[in-house]
Amino acid sequence: MENFKTSADVLFILLGAIMILAMHAGFAFLELGTVRRKNQINALVKILADFSVSTLAYFFIGYGVAYGVHFFSGAETLAQKSGYELTKFFFLLTFAAAIPAIVSGGIAERARFGPQLAATVFLVGFIYPFFEGIAWNQAFGIQAWLKASFGEEFHDFAGSVVVHAVGGWVALAAVLLLGARRGRYNKDGGISAHPPSSIPFLALGAWILMVGWFGFNVMSAQTLDKVSGLVAMNSLMAMVGGTLAALVAGKNDPGFVHNGPLAGLVAICAGSDLMHPLGALITGAVAGGLFVVMFTLTQNRWKIDDVLGVWPLHGLCGAWGGIAAGIFGAKAPGGLGGVAFMSQLAGTLLGIAVAFGGGLLVYGLLKQFVGIRLDAEEEFNGADLTIHKISASAERETLW
To answer: Of 64, 79, 327, 382, which one has the fewest beta carbons inside 10 Å?
Structure first.
């Protein structure tokens, strides 16, 4: 029975890893549909290349930073317990690789390819696992201090803060250092529209992410005996709440409608194992409305050219999710308890500080020493022709 349980756990977490791997296709198509046509190929190649670089960075550096585990032993040793530790690495890697995938959407259409891959090494090798170890592996005694101070540790079941807020706040640092796309904001204060190239591809990306998210959340139990239908139900309710709130607040705009469920799912990750479904519905609805309001402010009033709105979507909704776990996860509003509001607030603020500071450090150094932005002509021609020497559609070439 023990062997059967171990094998079942390997299969369980492997299926979760595969579902989250599929989410990276969602990241790719969400970006492809949102950017202009001359940058579509770059969106696809960037996500795949970033995932591959993330794998090496996390294998050789990041996993050891977070958990003190390495794989520099014989295959006979690694294959023990049906290779569960290897499959667990694969699962947690897909979380880590989400950081550059999130950043990619913010810096789209004007970022250089090579420096972004270099940034991925530092983000996945050092910045992300530093906070991951604090939140999920008791690093530096911070969780123990929070428990002693406020009665409970910082709780983030599936990564509202550890993954999404961290990715979103790193992206904000990168976007600020990179600057807006040329022609996006005029000197007289006007705003030039850069409409999405394909709403169907944007919607496809959102749907792939929604489906994969149930692996992201439910399989965060990591073993079959800890799986909870409550997590699935809460994920569903938050997704629906985010969708409907974005539908109303966004006045039926399809971009908002398809990002609304993602906002809800970002927010529910932290407390999905604790909340009552009605608490999850409220959490998701607040996130959907928050995304619409803050995306509009960011783009139109503050003139921060975050192409996919990854700071509002992941950075702010992820932070809201960390705090919401401390509100709706408590017993008073119907949650399971075992969570403290002050611990949630402190852990969330720490994640933001690590992410934004780390993002400024990584992208600031790259900007200083190698440059992170395409020049004016390259940006005008588009990242597809400039970097990959091919366009997404061959109409011009086939006319002759």
So the answer is: 79
- Return the closest-CA partner of residue 308 out of 41, 107, 99, 154: 107
- Residue 31 in contact with residue 383, Cβ under 8 Å? no
Amino acid 399: pLDDT: 44
DSSP state of 318: H
Identify which of 73, 76, 65, 127 has the alpha carbon closest to the alpha carbon of residue 99. Answer: 127
| Contact by Cβ (8 Å): 309, 259 | yes
Burial class (CB in 10 A: 0-12, 13-18, 19+), 184: middle
What per-residue confidence (pLDDT) applies to 295?
97
Q: How far apart are CA 137 and CA 144, in angstroms?
A: 11
Residue 395's pLDDT is 62
Burial 114-131 (b: 16+ CB within 10 A, else e): ebbbbbbbbbbbbbbbbb
Residues of the chain with confidence (pLDDT) below 70: 394-400
* Structure tokens belonging to residue 91: 């699962």
Q: What pLDDT shows up at residue 397? A: 52
Q: At what angle do helices 317-328 and 277-296 cross, to 10 degrees?
A: 150
Q: Which two tokens stand for residue 207?
A: 């749907």
d(CA 331, CA 133): 28
pLDDT of residue 80: 77
Could you please report the per-residue DSSP string of 122-174?
HIIIIIHHHHHHHHHS-GGGHHHHHHHHHSS----SS-IIIIIIHHHHHHHHH
Query: Cα angle vertex 204, ends 387, 233, to 5°?
Result: 130
Residue 109, phi-psi category: left (phi > 0), alpha (psi -120 to 50), beta (remainder)? left
Residues 380 and 182: their CA atoms lie apart, in Å, by: 8
- CA pair distance 334, 275, nearest whole angstrom: 7
What is the pLDDT at residue 396? Answer: 54
Concatenate the DSSP letters of all residues of 373-396 into one string: B--HHHHHH-HIIIIIS--S--HH
Return d(Cα 123, Cα 298) in angstroms, integer: 24
387: left (phi over 0), alpha (psi -120 to 50) or beta: alpha
Contact predicate 43/49, CB 8 Å: no
Q: What is the pLDDT of residue 1?
A: 76
Q: Rounded to two decimals, what is the model's pTM?
A: 0.95
Q: Which two tokens stand for residue 361?
A: 């450090």
